[in-house]
C-alpha cells in the first residue's frame, strides 16, 4: 500500500527533543559568549582561509549573537543577507510543507544559488560594507 501525497511522515519524539536541545544549547552558547573577540571557540571559515574572501555565511555567528542580545544594527552590519534571507526562506519552506507541496522546486534552488553567489560577490567588493551609508551611519 502506497502512502498518499497528503500523508506526512511523523518525526520520532526523541529526534525532535534532541534537535531542540542541540539548537537551544548552540544558541545559548552563541548568546552568552561574544564571537566578536578572539578565542570564541569556533574554527576559522575554511572558505576564507582558502580564498581570502568572506563566504555568504561569514558573520553569521556574530549576527546571531547580536540578534540574541538585541543589537539589530550590529546584526545588519555582520551579515544582512542571512538576517533577512534565512527567516524568509524558513517561512517559505514551512508554508510549502504545510500545503503539502515540494519544498525546494528547481526554480527555488536556482534563486537561492544565484542570490548566494551574488551576495558573496557584493560583500567582497572594495568599499563594502555599504550598509552604514544607507542607514545614515
UniProtKB/TrEMBL annotation:
Keywords: Membrane, Transmembrane, Transmembrane helix. Pfam families: DUF2752 (PF10825). The chain crosses the membrane at residues 12-32, 72-95, 102-122. This is DUF2752 domain-containing protein. It comes from Mycolicibacterium hodleri. The lineage of its organism: Bacteria, Bacillati, Actinomycetota, Actinomycetes, Mycobacteriales.
